[in-house]
């Protein structure tokens, strides 16, 4: 019985092999040619479902963090007269931060994922107190469209986890800030307390882990706190704190892998 079954299965396996190879080949080609496109499309289409609750939970904490922005005088005399600021946000996604910006602010954004543009402008329509300057599709590590010393405030929330290198983004942020300008950041970072969370963060951050497709290259194990503190770009003052975002039960407990956070203000 066993012999005849195994004799039968050998020729069958040989007929499967070309199909299996073809399947792998197609997956490889899709990844190579359309991987980034599909990843960005998927991320932008599912972002609100995946992180909507996070934004509700953190809303008041973020409001407090951004509150001091209103005391910053613009270095542009015309804007200063109007009590307005020139703000650059990197990686705004669908635009959850509009509500934290002082009235009359002029906003430029640099966003690598073009599929967020429609959602962003829809949200902007609900915040007419913000004047949109430009939506640049590009990367924070190379903001050649933004002149040196031209920005009063740079903002990033949960972006340093995804940029090519944190150092490259910081160099550009420092370049575009006017002297005395401020960089407000709110980022998730490598877990400090629980070793098992750290271990899963390292696994999820490997480029072959499916999490990298679903969350468009978000690295859960970034040590942005240490990199900013090293201050290779030369901020004159850095004020930052680690904290944990509020935790909830049920399915949302999964946010433990994402709950170790950093907030800070760096001054040029
Ligand atoms: C987790 S989302 C955060 C979105 C938004 N800041 C928020 O708090 O809801 C990360 C965002 O950063 C963008 N991003 C990733 N890498 C980037 C880069 N190198 N330059 C600019 N934006 C980038 C992504 O496209 C995405 O919109």
Automatic annotation (TrEMBL):
Transmembrane segments: 12-30
Stretches assigned to the Methyltransferase type domain: 88-184
Keyword Transmembrane helix tagged: yes
Swiss-Prot/TrEMBL keywords: Membrane, Transmembrane, Transmembrane helix
InterPro entries the UniProt entry points to: Methyltransf_11, SAM-dependent_MTases_sf, Thiol_S-MT
Gene3D superfamilies: Vaccinia Virus protein VP39 (3.40.50.150)
Highest taxon listed in the record's lineage: Eukaryota
Keyword Transmembrane helix listed: yes
GO MF annotation terms: S-adenosylmethionine-dependent methyltransferase activity
PANTHER family linked: METHYLTRANSFERASE LIKE 7A, METHYLTRANSFERASE LIKE 7B
Record-given protein name: Methyltransferase type 11 domain-containing protein
Native species: Daphnia sinensis
């Amino acid at each position: 019985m066993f012999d005849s079954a195994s004799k039968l299965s050998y020729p069958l396996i040989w007929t499967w092999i070309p199909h299996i190879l073809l399947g792998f080949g197609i997956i490889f080609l899709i990844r190579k040619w359309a991987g980034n496109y599909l990843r960005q499309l998927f991320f932008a289409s599912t972002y609100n479902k995946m992180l909507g609750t996070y934004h509700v939970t953190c809303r008041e904490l973020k409001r407090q963090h951004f509150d001091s922005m209103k005391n910053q005088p613009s270095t542009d005399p015309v804007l200063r007269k109007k009590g307005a600021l020139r703000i650059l946000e990197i990686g705004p996604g669908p635009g959850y931060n509009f509500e934290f910006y002082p009235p009359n602010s002029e906003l430029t954004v640099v966003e690598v994922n073009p599929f967020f543009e429609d959602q962003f402008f829809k949200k902007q329509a609900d915040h007419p107190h913000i004047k949109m300057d430009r939506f640049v599709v590009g990367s924070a590590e190379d903001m050649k469209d933004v002149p040196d010393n031209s920005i009063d405030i740079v903002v990033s929330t949960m972006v340093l986890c995804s940029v090519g290198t944190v150092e490259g983004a910081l160099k550009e942020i420092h370049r575009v800030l006017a002297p005395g300008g401020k960089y407000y950041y709110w980022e998730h970072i490598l877990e400090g307390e629980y070793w098992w969370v750290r271990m899963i963060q390292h696994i999820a951050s490997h480029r072959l882990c499916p999490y990298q497709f679903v969350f468009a290259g978000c690295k859960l194990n970034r040590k942005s706190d240490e990199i900013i503190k090293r201050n290779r770009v030369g901020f004159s003052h850095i004020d930052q704190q680690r904290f944990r975002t509020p935790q909830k039960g049920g399915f949302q407990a999964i946010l433990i892998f994402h709950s170790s956070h950093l907030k800070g203000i760096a001054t040029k």
